[in-house]
Amino acid sequence: MQSESREQILNTNFKIMLVLIISFVIISILLFKNLFFKSTYLLKNFGELSVNPEIAFTNNKPTFLEFYAEWCEVCKEMAPQVSSLKNEYEEDINFVFLNVDNQKWGNYIDKFGVNGIPQVNLFDKKGNLISTFIGKQDEIKIRESINNLEKEENPYKEIINAQFSIIQENKKNEVSPRSHG
Fold first, then answer.
1. Of 32, 78, 136, 181, which has the highest C-beta tally within 10 A?
2. CA distance 122 to 82
3. Torsions phi, psi for 138 (to 5 deg)
4. Each residue of 86-113: pLDDT tens digit?
5. How far is CA 143 from CA 60, 88, 146, 164, 167, in A?
């Protein structure tokens, strides 16, 4: 008898603990959802917030051009910093965001030799490429380069960090003999 009542108490305690743990996890996710999902949300909005590249290269303003992908972990890490830079400089600089998974931007990907993301290219107001950043970068480095865009003489700089994502080949629209059923 005592054994059965002890098992019932243990089962009841186990169920209570399980409900508490699940409740804690759900409440944590709800409270910290912005922290968990903010970077992904920012990346999804970059394309919508982007200046058209054709306009950016002809409106006599410096241009910040970022190649990114929504699946790129390094892009997600940098998204809050890039968003902060955009909010600070968007009056004076064009911000162009091109998703490498969108075939529409293939000519720009080829033109600027993009093979690792995120890749940020900074152009002066005449459209001259001044800096290329590949991979994860400190916000301070990018900010310094942005502040130097107004100088008349800017030697080209390429800054590569080992933390970047290799572009995955998009095979969604690839046609093969077997793809026709």
1. 78
2. 13
3. -75, 140
4. 999 989 999 999 999 999 999 999 999 9
5. 20, 10, 5, 19, 25
pTM of the model: 0.67
Residue 64: exposed, middle, or buried by beta-carbon count in 10 A (0-12, 13-18, 19+)? buried
- Output the 3-class SS for the chain: CHHHHHHHHHHHHHHHHHHHHHHHHHHHHHHCHHHHHHHHHHHHHHHHHCCCHHHHCCCCCCEEEEEECCCCHHHHHHHHHHHHHHHHHCCCCEEEEEECCCHHHHHHHHHCCCCEECEEEEECCCCCEEEEEECCCCHHHHHHHHHHHHCCCCCCEEEECCCCEECCCCCCCCCCHHHHC
